[in-house]
Design brief:
globular; binds adenosine-5'-diphosphate; 2 domains; 11 helices; six-stranded mixed beta sheet; Alpha-Beta Plaits; binds magnesium ion; alpha+beta
Length: 384
């Protein structure tokens, strides 16, 4: 969706041109799954798919929201009425950002908003973070709040955790706010320190495919929260603040201490080995040994499937079929129970792999997947 189209949409709705137009991308996570709420490491990169929002300030305490992608007209809310977990609609995401900014003492006095997004919703590509971050960046600019990108990401996370009521980590919002074109973002979710890692697969004759299984998940409830609570329980049993504090070298000792608590053993093993895999991928990319990350991605998938138990038949089929068709590596990405898988492949094998995955889905009578190439794109920015 182009800036011009969203600008025109805004003018048609609200009868005047917007003060500006901003964009924020969705993301895929290369490696580091379910580590972000354990204070661990993640490595996302931004997609070319973005949420684009046109905004103007208001001074009367009113927030008007409209999405081109949702049926229904403009939703009008009063800022003084905003309260956590009172809104079960899409409007909770942008309203939550306004609420979080005001809670933190920032003078946001109202806004008119019109937005449209090309980030597939519920596909594990973080359409929710794109939505939050685009609003946060726009309000930061318009109201001259002077917040840094990582601070905006924190406030967006608070909006999603507290206002929407979805217990997600900090990865998605930081990726959308901080990623850079041609790079993956190595992020330490404990202190939000970050390093941009050059990730230009095309230059090395490779491609990264996203296979959107079209299976929808619902993060806000259920299994995600259970895994998160399970990790916290594991950390408590081991006497650490977060599972990130269990060194990989001491994993066997830690697991022995958990004894026959099978669930804790599985969850702890996934998180600790996944943090190790992120560090391994960073080292391989920085030493130029890009093809060698393939097996690390595959090991990550096995861990999510067998230990963390958040894969599903569609994701497993996508991964197994891609590997059988010659992929260098593949794994599910995102929160799990549907959403997307990523596939690392030689450029020459992309067509064969895509066809193989599509045929396997047809044979299994699954909904046809959407397969597209992911090129590391820019983070959130002002468009006009
Ligand atoms: P994901 O972030 O993986 O796409 P989530 O469940 O976290 O999935 O967020 C999806 C929700 O975000 C949607 O149900 C909707 O409420 C909101 N959303 C995403 N894109 C849009 C959009 N273009 N317009 C309005 N709401 C959207
Ligand atoms: Mg989300």
């Amino acid at each position: 969706m182009g800036a011009q189209q969203v600008r025109e949409g805004f003018a048609a709705l609200y009868g005047a041109a917007p003060e500006g137009v901003w964009s924020a991308p969705g993301r895929v996570n290369l490696i580091g799954e379910h580590t972000d709420y354990n204070d661990g490491f993640v490595m996302p990169f931004a997609l070319p798919h973005t949420a684009v929002a046109a905004l103007s300030r208001r001074t009367d305490g009113v927030l008007r929201l409209h999405s081109a992608d949702v049926e229904g007209g403009v939703v009008e809310l009063r800022l003084d009425d905003l309260a956590p977990e009172t809104d079960r609609n899409w409007t909770a995401y942008p309203a939550g950002v306004v609420w979080a900014l005001r809670e933190a003492g920032h003078a946001v006095t109202g806004a008119d908003v019109h937005l449209a997004s090309t980030v597939p919703s519920g596909a594990g590509l973080s359409s929710s973070a794109a939505l939050e971050v685009v609003i946060a960046l726009a309000l930061n600019d318009l109201f001259e709040l002077g917040l840094q990108r990582w601070q905006l990401a924190r406030l967006c996370q608070r909006a999603e955790n507290v206002y929407v009521g979805a217990p997600t980590g900090i990865m998605d919002q930081t990726a959308s706010a901080c990623c850079e074109e041609g790079h993956a973002l190595f992020l330490d979710t404990r202190d939000l320190s970050q390093r941009q890692i050059p990730f230009d697969l095309a230059a090395e004759g490779m491609r990264l495919l996203v296979v959107d299984t079209q299976v929808k998940h619902a993060h806000s409830e259920g299994e995600y929260g259970k895994r998160r609570a399970g990790c916290e329980r594991g950390a408590a049993l081991l006497g650490v603040d977060a599972l990130r504090d269990v060194p990989y070298a001491e994993l066997d000792d830690a697991l022995a201490r958990l004894g026959d608590d099978e669930e804790a053993v599985r969850l702890v093993r996934h998180v600790v080995t996944e943090d190790e895999r992120v560090e391994k991928v960073v080292a391989l990319l920085e030493s130029g040994d890009t093809r060698a990350i393939g097996p690390v991605l595959v090991a990550g998938h096995a861990s999510l499937r067998d230990d963390f138990r958040i894969s599903c038949p569609e994701l497993d089929l996508a991964v197994d079929t891609a590997l059988a068709a010659g992929a260098l590596g593949a794994r599910m990405t995102g929160g799990g129970f549907g959403g997307s898988a990523i596939v690392l492949a030689e450029a020459a094998d992309v067509e064969t792999i895509t066809k193989a995955v599509e045929e396997a889905f047809a044979t299994a009578q699954f909904t046809a997947p959407r397969v597209f190439e992911a090129v590391p794109a820019a983070g959130a920015r002002r468009l006009s």
